[in-house]
Every structure is written in C-alpha cells, then in structure tokens.
Amino acid sequence: MSDGGDGGDGGDGGDDMEDLDARWADIVANWDDPAPIGHDEHEVSPPGSLADGLPGGLPAPVGPESSWRGYEPATEDEHWQPPDPEPLPPSNDLAFWVPTVGLGGGVCLLLFAVIIRPDNAGWYAALALAAMVLGFVTLLRSGGGSSAEDNFGIKL
Q1: Which tens digit of pLDDT belongs to each residue from 93-112?
Q2: Among 139, 136, 112, 134, CA closest to 124
Q3: From residue 74, how far is each of 63, 65, 77, 80 by CA, in Å?
Q4: Is there a smaller number of Cβ atoms within 10 Å at the N or the C end of the chain?
Q5: Structural domain contains residue 116
Q6: b/e string for 25-59 if b means 16 or more Cβ within 10 A?
Q7: CA-to-CA distance for 3 and 11, rounded, in angstroms?
Q8: Which residues of the chain have pLDDT under 50?
Q9: In the chain, how many domains are there?
Q10: Contact 128/110 with Cβ under 8 angstroms?
Q11: Within a 10 A sphere around the Cβ of 114, how many other Cβ atoms?
Q12: pLDDT at 6
C-alpha cells in the first residue's frame, strides 16, 4: 500500500512530486516577470509549422516570418462587391403594394391616431385596423401557391 504522498510504489515518485512542487513554486515566484525573449524550450509549435525543421532532419527554409493565425489584408482581386438590389415591383402589381401599404400604412395611421389625435382616435383607429386586416388578407391570398421554380426564395 502507498503511504499517500509519493504517488506510487515507493520508487522515485516522491522525487517527481518534489520536482513538480519546485517547478510550480518557481512559476508562482516569477509570475509577474516579463517573458524572456527568444524561443522557450517548453513552447509548443502549431501543427504544420516548420519550427523543428522539415521531416528527415532538414533545416527549415529561411524567409519572411508569417504567423499561422495572422491577418493578411485582402488584395484588390479578393474584394467582394454585393450585387445590385432588384427594383421594386411595378405600380400595377397589387399583390405587392396592397399588403405593403395596408400593413405599413395601417400601423403608421394607428400610431398617428393614438399619439397625435387622441381625442379623434376612434375613426382613425378603425380605418387603421381595416387597412391592416385588408393588407394581411391580401398577403395571405397572394402568397399561397408554389411556382415551377420552387427554390424557397433563394435567388442564385
């Protein structure tokens, strides 16, 4: 059985724990010191880096240093410009304009009635609610069918 402190079968496990405690005490003692300049022997290089050289013991190529997670500004060729927006539907497309004006204008008219004209709000509110209901019903009736190109609204 173990006596609880050496972490094993009585071999040099106690020495490992003392070494670990000494390293930990050194880390805590030097916590606020600035990091040394240069390569740290315990530093782990990122995967795929050439910090240890090439396979087979060949030295790493010499060249400009680049970070494996660094920022590189986009070149002129990589600039993305979104496509121009499509124009609004024509003015005779009632399936678009009646819901737009009914829902948008109805809400605006209701706010006008409540905020600006609270003494005469009854007729304005009734007209606003009628416009919103008309816009909503028109929206439901015009958007129900599926087209031959049913692409779920995605335009490629």
Answers
A1: 888 889 999 999 999 999 98
A2: 112
A3: 21, 18, 8, 10
A4: C
A5: yes
A6: eeeeeeeeeeeeeeeeeeeeeeeeeeeeeeeeeee
A7: 12
A8: 1-8, 10
A9: 1
A10: yes
A11: 13
A12: 47
DSSP secondary structure string for all residues of 55-105: TTSPPPPP-----TT------GGG---PPPPPPPPPTT-HHHHHHHHHHHH
Q: Which domain holds residue 101?
A: 94-142
Both tokens of 22, joined, read 């000494």
Q: How many CA atoms lie within 13 A of 47 on its CB side?
A: 0
Q: Which token pair is 44? A: 């782990």
Report residue 18 as tokens.
């003392």
* Rounded-to-integer distance, Cα 85 and Cα 90, Å: 15
Query: Could you identify the residue written with the tokens 């599926």?
Result: 146
Q: Does 153 fall in a domain?
A: no
Q: Are 97 and 135 in contact (CB under 8 A)?
A: no
Does residue 65 lie within any of the structural domains? no
